[in-house]
Structures are given as C-alpha cells and as structure tokens.
Specification:
Layout: H1 10-20, H2 27-37, H3 40-53, H4 65-77, E1 81-84, H5 92-95, E2 103-108, E3 117-122, H6 128-143, E4 147-150, H7 156-164, E5 169-172, H8 186-195, E6 197-200, H9 212-223, E7 226-230, H10 237-247, E8 251-255, H11 265-272, E9 276-277, H12 281-293, H13 314-327, E10 333-334, H14 335-342, H15 346-358, E11 362-365, E12 369-372
Parallel strand pairs: 3-4, 3-7, 4-5, 5-6, 7-8, 8-9
Antiparallel strand pairs: 1-2, 2-6, 10-12, 11-12
Helix pairs in contact: 1-3, 1-4, 2-3, 3-15, 6-7, 9-10, 13-15
Length: 375
C-alpha cells in the first residue's frame, strides 16, 4: 500500500459519499470541511449550523444514508468501484490538484490509474488526417509506456482511444461511468473496459449534461503529465482542457495545422502562447522525460485530523462576516488579499468563506480566488 494512504471503511465511504452529494459541497469545499473537522461524519453534523451562519434561510440539503447506500449498490451492479482520494488506487497526479473529486467511479482496469498518463483531446468534427495522426500518436505514446487519457467524444478523442487500446487507455466521462456517450461509441466503451478503464466523478446512471463537460475536462488534464491538442477551433472545449492543464502546472502540447483550416486555430494559438509544437511522440516524450524521472510532487497524503473543536462565537462571527462581505463582489478576488485588507487571521477568513460557500453565496475560482454570488 502507498505510504500515508489507507482504505476507507464501509461506514466512512458512505459518509464521504453523503458529504460530496450534499448541497453546495464541491471538491474544494469537501476538502476544507475534512481539514476542519477531521472526518466526513463530523462535517455532516456541522453542515446545518455552518450553512445557517452563512446566510441560508432554509435547511441545507444533506445527502442521506439511504441515498448513499443506493448509489453504492448501483455502482456495484454496474461493475464500478468507488476510489477515494486517500486510497492507494486513486491516481496520484489527480490527487495533487486542488479540486480533485473525492470519489472516482472506475470500471475496468483500475491499476492503469497508477501509471504515467498523457491526455489527448481535439475536435469532434476532426479531419481524416487529424484522426489518423491522433491514432498514430496515441499508439506511439502507448508503446513508449504512457497511458493515453481522453474523453471518449467523437473525432480526436475516439481516434486516440483506439490508437491506445493495445497499451491501455483511460476514458473520462461527463455522465456516469456506465452511461455511453456518444451512443455510437458503445463498442469502444466495451473494448476500453477490457484492457483500460472508464472513470467518472458522477453517480452511475447519470446522463451527461452540458455543464458537466468542463468538470470532466479538469479531470482529464489532472490525471495527466501533459495535454496534447489535435485540431480545435477557437471556441473548442479542448482549449478548456488546455487551460486547466496550464492552471494545474501540466505541460501543454499542440499539433500545428494549416491557417486555412478553422480546426487549426486552437492549436496554432496555443503554440503562439508557449505550447510545445508537436509533430511526433518524441516531441512529447522529450518534454516529459524529466517529469518521468522525477514524478510530480504531491505533498503528504491528507490525514484530515481536524483543527476546530467547535464553532466560533456567533457575535464575533457576524462581525467578521460583515467585514469580509464588504470586500467581496461578483469579480473574483484573491483570498490572500482579503486577509491583508481585513487584518484577520487566515483561519478566521477561511472559516467565514466556508460558511458563505455552504450557504450558496460564494463561488471558488482557480488561483485561490473567490467571488460573491449575486441573486
């Protein structure tokens, strides 16, 4: 077992599932709650008071034990296992990101998640040349020992998965891991789970929705040492994945194309802004060789011992909340700047922001920025 990692008990897994399925609890909030209270069970007990103190005027919706038991049973029927961030099977590179899903549903060969990965993404309406290139690049990367991750979308994603089938590929889905999308990739999904893995942060049976795809994209980049973009127009979702990669400290690679083809606009612009021009697997491996020799630092595995014995005094809490609310607005601001302006301790500011978040009044942004939700 990996040092510092452990297997959750059945009761803990249910509590983790209940907490992440609770209202206004996303991955970042989940981690802050566990850091604060030490366990999901203690965080669940504290949620009603925290949300009320943050300004929620009704009872916060907390994931029920019965619903969590049903979700676990459904996952088992679908052939999926749920892996938590602190468990040994969870992908290390993804665990190092600030918004890693607390639980991942995995169907197939979960051992692939421990291997070094490269993500490949691109246009759904990809050209024949683009698809052929993606398939060859994925096969070459696979032969070099890399696992290829993608989103199982039409076009480049599909070609990349097929190219990497023999060596191992990971498909990250926007819906449940058992929900095949697009439907014509039914055969591909079945081939992937034989030798590779399909993963998702969503409950099994969940149909994909438009808002789920950007969340899926940050998992694709988070799994990987780098992201290769092959054909993408200027507004492609593949560029969202590339931005996530840059924010997560990953390498960005782009395959150049003709300026006459709108599908080359995205990769060409990425190259113009510092992405590695990529014409072969060697271009990718040359950049990643140092990372392969010295894997991405992930820090110590979180132990979640808890830091608070109880809630702050409500009168003082109200004063500090008013002070912090005065500095917040719809435009994101750095948390460090709030601390400087308020002259309050980081722990006090963190506590108030957590209350506001659980009340549905605060939004977290990359780079440790927060914004007030208006309306």
């Amino acid at each position: 077992m990996d040092e510092g990692r452990r297997i959750l008990s059945t009761a803990e897994r249910l509590d983790w599932l209940r907490l992440i399925r609770s209202e206004n609890v996303g991955p970042r909030t989940f981690n802050r709650l566990l850091e604060r209270f030490g366990s999901a069970a203690a965080a669940l007990d504290a949620l009603p008071d925290l949300a009320k103190r943050g300004g929620l005027r009704r009872a916060v919706a907390i994931g029920s034990k019965a619903a969590a038991e049903r979700e676990l049973a459904a996952a088992e029927r679908a052939g999926a296992r749920l892996i938590a961030t602190l468990e040994p099977g969870y992908p290390r590179w993804l665990a190092a990101t600030e918004d890693a899903p607390p639980l991942l549903a995995v169907i197939g060969n979960a051992s692939l998640l421990a291997k070094p990965m490269v993500a490949m993404v691109g246009a759904r309406n990809a050209s024949l040349n683009g698809r052929n290139f993606a398939r060859k690049l994925a096969a070459d990367l696979g032969r070099a020992g890399m696992v290829v991750a993608s989103g199982m979308a039409r076009g480049i994603d599909t070609a990349a998965h097929y190219g990497a089938l023999a060596s191992g590929t990971v498909a990250v889905l926007a819906g449940g891991a058992d929900v095949i999308y697009p439907p014509e990739n039914d055969g591909l999904w079945r081939e992937i789970i034989q030798t590779g893995a399909v993963i998702s942060e969503m409950p099994v049976g969940t149909a994909p929705q438009a808002s789920y795809f950007p969340r899926r994209n940050r998992i694709i980049s988070g799994l990987s040492l780098g992201v290769v973009v092959v054909e993408a127009n200027a507004r492609s979702g593949s560029l969202i994945t590339a931005r996530f990669a840059a924010d997560q400290g990953r390498e960005v690679f782009a395959v150049p194309g003709s300026p006459m083809d709108p599908r080359a606009a995205g990769p060409n612009d990425l190259i113009r802004n510092g992405a590695t021009l990529t014409e072969s697997a060697e271009d990718v491996l040359a950049v990643l060789s140092d990372l392969l020799r010295h894997p991405l630092g992930e820090g110590e595995t979180a132990q979640y011992r808890g830091t608070a014995a109880g809630l702050p005094d409500p009168i003082e809490d109200a004063r500090t909340r008013a002070q912090i609310l005065e500095l917040l607005g719809p435009a994101p601001v750095m948390v460090d700047e709030i601390i400087r302006q308020c002259q309050l301790s980081p722990s006090v500011v963190s506590w108030v922001l957590l209350e506001l978040e659980l009340a549905g009044r605060l939004d977290r942004h990359p780079g440790n920025k927060v914004a007030l939700l208006v309306g």
